[in-house]
Amino acid sequence: MNEKTTETVLDLLAGSFPDGRPVLEKVRALAAPEGNRYRLLQSPLFVTGVACGDLIEPLSNNPGRFRVHERSGQLAVRVLRRDGVAELEQELTPALEKLDGELDVQSERALVYSIHVAVGFSEIEQVLDRIITSTDNATWSYGNVYDPETGEPLDWWESLLNP
């Protein structure tokens, strides 16, 4: 039995407070056999650039920061609603499950889903736009599609879809 396959919780950088202190998000992961690497068990709510199944390595001497070593092909889809998501979740989860999507995180005002990129951006966006646009004070975004600093697409999916 490999003891390194136990579930753990990583503190990943989600942003910073106005005074510069880091904001860390707890994300479930499995320790991987190769060194200081972890496979994410969920797509995070606030941490950008990663999704469920990605293999990451926390950077030493840089709390919360990490390097992505392998992409799982999952898209992280975040749904936010000021008035609560309970009712929205009842409609959205079954619709995204039909696309093999999975609900990873649910809080009072947020949902996070993982959906494989092979489903297609258009297919996913049609479902999200249909349900989210008919809901007051709700919005959705991808958590691992755009560079958080430049806004440019990360394009990591190109090598998965066009090998």
Key features of this structure:
163 residues; alpha+beta; Alpha-Beta Plaits; 2 domains; five-stranded antiparallel β-sheet; four-stranded antiparallel β-sheet; 3 helices; 9 strands; globular
Output the number of helix runs: 3
> What CATH architecture of the largest domain do you see?
2-Layer Sandwich
Task: Supply the helix-strand structural class.
Answer: alpha+beta
Work out the helicity level.
Answer: 10-25%
Shape: globular
Give the spatial strand order of the biggest sheet. Answer: 1-2-3-4-5
The largest sheet, given as strand count, sense and whether it forms a barrel, is:
5 strands, antiparallel
What letter string, H or E per element, gives the SSE order? Answer: EEEEEEHEEHEH
Describe the structure.
This protein has two domains: 3-70, no CATH class; 74-142, 2-Layer Sandwich (Alpha-Beta Plaits). Helix 1 (86-97) packs antiparallel against helix 2 (121-132). It has helices at 86-97, 121-132, 158-161; strands spanning 7-16, 22-31, 38-40, 55-58, 66-70, 74-81, 102-106, 110-116, 138-142. It is of the alpha+beta class and 163 residues long. The protein is globular. The strands form two sheets. It has a five-stranded antiparallel sheet, with no helix packed on it. Strands 7-8-6-9 form a four-stranded antiparallel sheet, with helices on one face. It is 17% helix and 35% strand.
Question: Which helices and strands occur, and which strands form pairs?
Answer:
Elements: E1 7-16, E2 22-31, E3 38-40, E4 55-58, E5 66-70, E6 74-81, H1 86-97, E7 102-106, E8 110-116, H2 121-132, E9 138-142, H3 158-161
Antiparallel strand pairs: 1-2, 2-3, 3-4, 4-5, 6-8, 6-9, 7-8
Helix pairs in contact: 1-2
